[in-house]
Amino acid sequence: MTPDAFPGPLFTDLYELTMAAGYFQRQLQASATFSLFIRPHPKRGYFVSAGLEAVLDALDRFRFSTEEIDWLARTGRFKTDFLDYLAALTFTGNVMAMPEGEIFFPNEPLLEISAPLIEAQLLETYLINTMGVASMLATKAARCVYATAGRPIVDFSLRRTQGSHAGMVVARSSYIAGFNGTSNVLAGKQWDIPISGTMAHSFVTAFESEIDAFEAYADLFPESSIFLIDTYDTLQGARNAARVGRRMQAKGLALQGVRLDSGDMVDLSRRVRRILDEAGLPEVKIFASSGFDEYVLSHLIENGARIDAFGVGTRMGVSADAPYLDMVYKMVRLGNRDVRKQSEGKVTLAGEKQVFRRRSPDGRFRGDIIGLRDDVPPDGATAALLAPVMEKGRRLGALPPLSEIRDRFADRFARLDDQFKRLENPGEYPVAVSRRLAEIQKKC
């Protein structure tokens, strides 16, 4: 089993199964279309699409095992004819989706599924869980990348994520969003993400002296040594690192860097830079880690920290300032009837949809229009963002490699105005509704 493998159709909320049983009892088997989207979020001016690969893998594998059907029978909640139906169930529907790495905005469908009602309904929990978390983390990571203003940044979050699966999602999503690597070795193996790491304080304290620890590490990893210098006294640690660095230099080797993990990063990084430069080691980089997120990173850079690269962990890995997205999955069409929810504050858009993106002559994003799926692209719209990825339960070709998804995000992010990227009080990106889609809403 791969680390992101589908856990099976019982990974769902009970009410999905009870609703399905109700549909089955009343023979409600018409085709339904459900739309997956995110409601507005006060701290986010944009979102990054992620998680589609795992979703399509789940749809390929969607079937109940004999063991799962037997367990459902033992709960005493479901009739035998319904369980027999589930035992033969596979996904036979169609999927329209934005590609991973695309930028999207509130209320825009990230994905729409059209399938027999029971099939479409049973997917709700998994879809929200999978794409919600992956998109949340990709968005958080993109904000961190933006804050570093071009400096390298690595995912150090694995030990603090909420479980092993979350750690894998963080590594993949952050790489999509522009991180340069991860400390997560398994993610490196699975997705060919560059792996990165230095040493812990325990390594330093395992030796009689700090210099002994640095020399031992340099002997073992002469091409990739980065010394953690704040175990005892940070400035003395920098001097000790410089001594070992000069010894390496004399052997034709090069110390790659030193790492700060505590203290006043602005002041310490400046003083450490001075120590390294005076020792004749201007090429040695200063890496830093210590509870960073986009806000801390921005503060450090704005205040002149002499830090060359960052390791970002807990706050990115759990999206600390926005630890969930209000992602929802709502029915928008049943049979030949468009439907929508009209609850106060939670009104949805009926109808099978498409998202059209308008660009200026230089390629920058000007605004989006949510329309009906068969709408003619409006003037100035250069892209329809939802594309078919499954038909009749079968994938339409292979998904792109992670490197291509990463390149897509970089391209799209470069086209987004800075006002929407702001860490505080981002601008509201213009998203309109087409005339035909608006007319549909009046009839529901």
Automatic annotation (TrEMBL):
PTM entry text: Transiently phosphorylated on a His residue during the reaction cycle. Phosphorylation strongly increases the affinity for substrates and increases the rate of nicotinate D-ribonucleotide production. Dephosphorylation regenerates the low-affinity form of the enzyme, leading to product release.
EC number(s) given by UniProt: 6.3.4.21
Residue stretches making up the Nicotinate/nicotinamide phosphoribosyltransferase domain: 153-317
Domain Nicotinate phosphoribosyltransferase C-terminal stretches: 384-440
Residue ranges constituting the Nicotinate phosphoribosyltransferase N-terminal domain according to the UniProt record: 10-131
Entries under Gene3D superfamilies matching the protein: Aldolase class I, nicotinate phosphoribosyltransferase
Protein role: Catalyzes the first step in the biosynthesis of NAD from nicotinic acid, the ATP-dependent synthesis of beta-nicotinate D-ribonucleotide from nicotinate and 5-phospho-D-ribose 1-phosphate.
Family listed: Belongs to the NAPRTase family.
Protein's recorded name: Nicotinate phosphoribosyltransferase
Organism: Desulfosarcina ovata subsp. ovata
